[in-house]
Amino acid sequence: MLADLARGLATTLKAMFEKPVTIQYPEVKRPVRTRYKGRHFLKRYENGLEKCIGCSLCAAACPADAIFVEAAENTDDERYSPGERYARVYEINLLRCIFCGYCEDACPTEAIVLGDNYELSFTDRRSSIYTKEMLLEPVPEGGQPTPQKTPPGMFSRAIPEMKDPD
Amino acid sequence: MTKMITLTIDGIQVTVPEGTNIVDAAKKAGIDVPVFCYHPKMHPVGMCRMCLVEVGRPVMDRATGEFVRNEDGSLKIQFNPKLETGCTTPVSEGMVVINTSDKVKRGRKDILEFLLTSHPLDCPICDKGGECPLQNLTMAHGPGTSRFLFDEKKHLLKHTPLGELIYLDQERCIQCGRCVRFQEELVDDPVIGFSQRGRALQIVTFSEPGFDSIFSGNTTDICPVGALTTADFRFGARPWELNAAASICQHCPVGCNLTVNVRREAVAGGKVVIKRIMPRQNEWVNEIWICDKGRFGYHYTESAERLTQPLMRKEGELVPVSWEEALSVVVERFRQAGEGLLSLAGGRLSNEDLYNLRKLTEGVGGKTALYTHMSGGEAVIQAGLGQESNLAELGKGDAILVIASDLHQEAPIWWLRIKQAAERGATLIVALPRPTRLEKFAQHVLRYRYGDESGLILAMLNVLSAKRPSLPQRVNTLWRDDQVQAAAKAFAEARNAVVFFGNEGVGLQASQSLAQACLNLLLVTDHAGRPNNGLIPVWQRPNDQGAWELGWRPLPNLSEAMGQARAMYVVACDPAGDDPTLPLTPDFLVVQDLFLTATAKLAHVVLPALPFTERMGSLVSGERRAQCYYPVLPARPGPKADFAIVGQIGKALDLDLEDRLASRVMQRIAAEVSAFAGINYTALAHAPQQWPIIGREDLYYGGTTYENKQGIGVQLPNAIQRGEQVALGWPDLAQMTDAEEGLLAVPLSKIYDSGSTLIHSTLLDQRRVGPVLWLHPNDAAANAIQVGDLVHLQCGQASAMATVVFDEQVPQGVILLPRSAGIPLHEPCRVQIGVVERS
Questions:
Q1: Could you tell me if B625 and B387 are in contact, meaning their C-beta atoms sit under 8 angstroms apart?
Q2: Which end of chain B is more exposed for a tag (fewer CB within 10 A), N or C?
């Protein structure tokens, strides 16, 4: 009987010298997996133009009806995206979002991606709505913020040039 | 009776009239043959080759003329080795059509592969994406991959304005020619066409301004791809995000059925806004078309200038007050005014508003007056277009007389339907002192001098009668004119006959005489009280006819009545804005309107009303069809529906009025007004199956016009059909005197004016008519006037300024002026003219 007790205590003692499994969040953050689906980002091209063309297909694909898009037309004086159309309003209600990633699948220009950020808590419903300004990634180095003034004829396609789907 | 033909399509037996093509026959059997270029309202051309089907015909023995039979006794069918186009192949007896064989599928797949070699993959941003025939048919019949090289796709201009209203995307066009054929065949505006050949073929416009047609918006509905889009809706929303509500157009007395697409918008502060106006099928009214005024002229309903709360004059200024305060003052003053109250209503109001307003005014003891410059509604009540009529049924052997109206500008859809009737063989008689677009299709064109309208109709009657009562000097010998004789005889001999009368060159009194003369003509020739016969007034407002039905009449001496009134209740009209000389100085003036009009600025109390998009109501069109419109948007907080405001005032005055539900007001109307007997909102919402079947899943067949599920309305029976006696009456010709000195100024209607319901649609600014006057160069020379002169016109007390434009089509001795374009002349009058400024 004493032997059993000693064996048990020995296990305890051994555990005291092992490396702890618990992570001290929020001081310490565990890296997420590469395919993790966290808060969305709206991507930009290298020159700073937005990839989003305001087609609303993400909103159509969204099973939770969390995305709202309103489109408008680009001009050479005020250009947001390389195509004819851009998202004038882009909102995601992250309380509604179920992080399924369908929006990413639906996007024809790979403009929306689900990122790493999972720290989403809100004290009121209004602040759960992320606007386009909050979702857009920062302008890459060497790029210009939108809207840009672009030379006429440079972006004459309806949507940005795409590679052969094959 | 047309011969009926029985054929078999995919094993289903169909019986259709001779001359039907395979696509339509299949549609009747519920089988869809895919099409791009074919449209049920246009002649087939067989350009797109999408409707290829296998066709077999019974074999006939040439020697005996008998059909060859198989051993089992069935007819021997020989199939054409090649596929045939379903749209250009008329059906024949015993024909066998196969729509689902592998050969057919292969054919369709290859056609789609060809079409897609040069069609861009714009679908994500294309306005048509989601309601696109090419997209849908590719999904249903197309190949998954293409054998053509992606990099060899042709690249063309994307954003090509054909005008300021319609944009062309050259890449997306699949060259079906629907738009070109629509403009040429249907609306006789061949302002767009194909340029070049083969792969270089493009749609171009060759008019100035570009795409100069008042029906241009319809081409975007029937375009099977997103090549033609409207400037108004461009990138506005995706079709699946839109909600739809049924409405009725409020711009003219035709009463076109509309579907209004709405959506909540962040930029509008989260409010629901109108994104676009689409036609709704009603084969009795507008078929599947609407004019551009109806399509683009809705912006006033959403204007920020609209009144939002009641205003009351305090210390000389109009200040916002609560409804309770405003209404308590109105009630008190109306009670005091008693029989001194004059209610003036415009024809924009619904039947419910007009009924309540009349009941309120009569309850107090006051007088009512319809604010209009055209009369003659009583004749229409007696012998208006008969119940069960459809202008589409007029054809060979029928006659249509159009007098004193330029329908192309005043009621475009009537113009279109009359044109089509004339093309089907109806005898068209157009009477107007100047040429109009309709004359091209007329067998008889009658020219007369402005002022002789009633005389001309009576002269036609004199042709037909043996007695020939004598007419005033200037028209007494008109009946001897060959043209008048021929027209009168053609009209009398017609199986069915319809008369359209307008008010171009006709004042309030003269239009009464004109209507009476037209009524006489219809009665004498026995063209009244039957379907497809009768009188159609071309009113200036959408519900003028409803006002007449509900007992509203214009006052011949309105300014005198206004001068005597102690209190006035002006609803949905702007007399002060139209004519500053009218005496609008009663002790108490209440104005109820959408905007702060010139009259409202003079008022003691201003009450804000709701536009048609935010409430329910019913209208009576010129064809006497009662139709109902529904709320499209949630009502803005503040304003109220006209009938509700009137009802509340009435209740406070201890009158029994309904102030909550429009449908209950309609019940009261039905109980009291015999023309409306049996009508309620359920009856108005009756929607029978229509042909062609349009607006269902198969958008490729008829375009994006909406299917009518919300009701086609009910045509009211006229007095003759209700069994009442209608007698001939002698029209008042007292005004018909010989020419006086000076030029005769004649106001006429142009489609795009600056009226309060159109001025807010800035898209139409370029096409709007300004304060101009048209006159013949000879008259100009006689009065020393040059083109571009700013001239001053004086007619009695009224005066106006206008810029001179020469037009050789204007009759000599006449100047023409646009209505609602800043010139305060509403009736024909002799004017003094003087040059103010020479450019």
A1: no
A2: N
Q: Pick from B706, B639, B754: which is nearest to B302 by CA?
A: B639
- pLDDT bracket for residue A162 (50, 70, 90): low
Nearest-CA distance from A101 to chain B in Å? 18
What b/e readout covers A51-87, taking b as 16+ CB neighbours within 10 angstroms? bbbbbbbbbbbbeeebbbbbbbbbeeeebbbbbbbbb
Residue A31 domain flag: no
Tokens 């007004």 sit at which residue?
Answer: B673
Q: What is the pLDDT of residues B322-334, one digit of tens each?
A: 999 999 999 999 9
Query: Which of A55, A65, A88, A133 would best serve as a mutation to test chain B binding (most B beta carbons within 10 A)?
Result: A55
What is the full DSSP assignment across B747-815?
EE--SS---TTTTT-GGGGGG---SEEEE-HHHHHHTT--TT-EEEEEETTEEEEEEEEE-TTSPTTEE
Whether cis (ω within 30° of 0) applies to the bond prior to A31 is: no
Q: Which domain holds residue A133?
A: 39-160
Rg (CA), chain B: 29
Matching residue, tokens 């004749």: B379
The minimal CB distance from B266 to the residues A70, A157, A158 is found for A70
Whether residue B209 is preceded by a cis peptide bond, meaning omega within 30 degrees of 0, is yes
What pLDDT score does B238 carry? 95
In a domain, residue A27? The reply is no
- As for how many domains chain A has, the answer is 1
The answer to whether A59 contacts B241, with C-beta atoms less than 8 Å apart, is yes
Question: What sign has the CA pseudo-torsion B319, B322, B325, B326?
Answer: positive
Residue A70 belongs to a domain: yes
Q: Which of B16, B19, B52 is nearest to B34 (CA)?
A: B52
Q: What are the structural domains, with CATH classification, of chain B?
A: 4-141 (3.10.20.740), 152-302 (3.30.70.20), 311-372+547-660 (3.40.50.740), 377-538 (3.40.228.10), 743-837 (2.40.40.20)
Stretch 681-740 of chain B: residues touching chain A, C-beta under 8 Å: none
Q: What is the CATH number of the domain that holds A130?
A: 3.30.70.3270
What tens digit of pLDDT does each residue of B474-524 get? 888 899 999 999 999 999 999 999 999 999 999 999 999 999 999 999 999
Which of B393, B382, B727, B677 is CA-nearest to residue B529?
A: B382
Residue A163 has pLDDT above 60, yes or no: no
Residue B738 pLDDT grade (very low, low, confident, very high; cuts 50, 70, 90): low
Note whether B171 contacts A: Cβ–Cβ < 8 A.
yes
Rounded-to-integer distance, Cα B134 and Cα B111, Å: 11
Cα separation, B396 vs B367, in Å, equals: 47
Q: Which of B360-370 are b and which e, b meaning 16 or more Cβ less than 10 Å from the residue's Cβ?
A: bbebbebbbbb
Give the bridge partners for B205, in sequence order. Answer: B192
Contacts of A72 in chain B (CB under 8 A): 235
Closest chain A residue to B263 measured between Cα atoms? A70
The nearest CA of chain A is from the CA of B269 a distance in Å of 12
pLDDT of B428 > 60? The answer is yes
Q: How far is B18 from chain A (nearest CA, A)?
A: 46
Q: How far apart are CA B58 and CA B35, in angstroms?
A: 26
Buried b (16+ CB within 10 A) or exposed e, B675-693: bbeebbbeebbebeebebb
Instruction: List helix spans (H) across B188-237.
Output: 217-222
Q: Which residues contact B399 (CB under 8 A, 6 or more apart)?
A: B426, B427, B428, B429, B490, B491, B493, B494, B496, B497, B498
As to burial, measured by CB atoms within 10 angstroms (0-12 exposed, 13-18 middle, 19+ buried), residue B375 is: buried
Q: pLDDT per residue over B576-625, tens digit each?
A: 998 888 888 889 999 999 999 999 999 999 999 999 999 999 999 999 99
Does the residue A71 lie in any domain? yes
